[in-house]
Amino acid sequence: KLTSLALQPAITPELVHGRVHLKCSYSCPTAKPPLQYLVVWSRLSTPGKKEQVQRDTTLQSFSYVEMNGRNLRLGDTVFCTVTAFSRDASEQQSLPEESKGFYAGIKFLPESLQIAEDGKEHVLTVLSTVPIACPGQDDSCKITLQLSTEDLDSQLPGPPNIALSACQVDLLRAPCSGSSCAAATVTVTAVTDFAQDGNRLSRIRAEPVGRRDLLWRAYTPKDVKVTVRDLPTGNCYSFTDPHIITFDGWRYDNYKIGTFLLCRSTSRAFEVHVRQWDCGGHRSATACNCGVAAR
Predict the structure, then answer these.
(1) pLDDT tens across 103-150, in order?
(2) I want to staple 54 with a disulfide (CB 3.0 to 4.6 A). Which of 41, 173, 255, 278 is the partner?
(3) pLDDT at 2 over 60
(4) 149-171 pLDDT, tens per residue?
């Protein structure tokens, strides 16, 4: 056998004649007699089990395989394994070397979120690890993803757990860099529901829309799981004639007639006005709440 040659195969995505390919590159040691290479492409079919999709014997320092939507599809994790052997004596061969797994498809970063009902926005990055092809003259080089949310604790009543800043995002083609060939961002916020309902689980789903090519049409990316941590909500009250208890527990009385500013936030567009009218008898003047306006 040839000694270990440190071929170090690695997979990168590329567009070849407008179609998505994966390229397996490896280092070629100078050897006499010259070497040729067996490149075996495989995909992860089930956890821990690989399925061979293509074999190449080549003199080059690289090999291509097409993501055609049939034997290699979006959502696959792909490997290439390279063995070098002598052209003159094929029984002289190196130990096979396998690349790291390359995930082809849409990725979310982070892959899951843990957020709290505190009004903060959390950035979710959506990226494609493969380049975006332009299938026709009238198509721009982009993938449009329709975003939706679903509460997994659906048996509990109430508003949705999370809100997104956009219902769809466009992944525009860009030069591949790192693990990204196109990226967009969306913000996720936990809905403050004023209920003590414990931690709740939701998911964000993305679906490609309007694509006619086989590669994208049959593909649904993995969901993003979002855990929303319940936080206690502040309460204030105005009741009977009216007694007022503020968020921090102080107690006041306001027996006057008129329209009053009950609450205003210093950090966001939120305020509450209350209107009080005369609801007293002959002996005493008493005011009661008769209307409220909230923004």
Answers:
(1) 999 999 999 999 998 889 999 999 999 999 886 655 578 899 999 999
(2) 41
(3) no
(4) 999 876 666 678 899 999 999 99
What average pLDDT does the chain have? 89
pLDDT, position 268: 85
Token output for 228: 């929303």
Contacts of 272 (CB under 8 A, 6+ apart): 261, 262, 263, 264, 292, 293, 294, 295
What's the burial of 51, exposed, middle or buried (CB within 10 Å: 0-12/13-18/19+)?
A: exposed
Contact by Cβ (8 Å): 2, 84: yes
- Could you give phi then psi for residue 216, rounded to 5 degrees? -90, -25
Rounded to whole angstroms, the Cα distance separating 258 from 254 reads 10
Query: Measured on CA atoms in the order 174, 176, 179, 181, is the torsion positive or negative?
Result: positive
Do 132 and 172 touch, CB atoms closer than 8 A?
yes
Distance separating alpha carbons of residues 169 and 145, to the nearest angstrom: 5
106-229 maps to which CATH number? 2.60.40.10
pLDDT tens, 45-64?
Answer: 888 899 999 999 999 999 99
Do the beta carbons of residue 84 and residue 36 sit within 8 Å?
Answer: yes
Per-residue model confidence (pLDDT) at position 139: 55
Q: Is 78 exposed, middle or buried (0-12, 13-18, 19+ CB in 10 A)?
A: buried
Distance CA 92, CA 83 (A): 11
User: Residue 169 burial by CB count (10 A; 0-12/13-18/19+): exposed, middle or buried?
Assistant: buried
What is the location of CATH 2.60.40.10 in the chain? 10-104, 106-229
Nearest to 2 by CA among 94, 87, 95: 94
Tokens read off for 215: 């590669």
